[in-house]
Amino acid sequence: MAKLLVKQVRSKINCPFTQKRGLEALGLRKMGQVVEHDSNPAILGMINKVKHLVSVEEIK
């Protein structure tokens, strides 16, 4: 299974509550923070919700 590096690149200030909770569910609390996740439908759905706030890299 592929791994994803997710980095928060934009602030969650003035975002809807659901997007703030999505960032927290991904484990992103601060700007510039990077977390690693397995690529599965649940994680990809959360990333899709906040795609304008994060950058995603696939690692092998």
TrEMBL record:
Belongs to the universal ribosomal protein uL30 family. InterPro entries: Ribo_uL30_ferredoxin-like_sf, Ribosomal_uL30_bac-type, Ribosomal_uL30_ferredoxin-like. GO terms for cellular component: ribosome. Residues 4-54 form the Large ribosomal subunit protein uL30-like ferredoxin-like fold domain. Part of the 50S ribosomal subunit. Pfam families: Ribosomal_L30 (PF00327). This is Large ribosomal subunit protein uL30. The keyword Aminoacyl-tRNA synthetase does not apply. Keywords: Ribonucleoprotein, Ribosomal protein. The keyword Metal-binding does not apply. CDD domains: Ribosomal_L30. Gene3D superfamilies: Ribosomal protein L30, ferredoxin-like fold domain (3.30.1390.20).
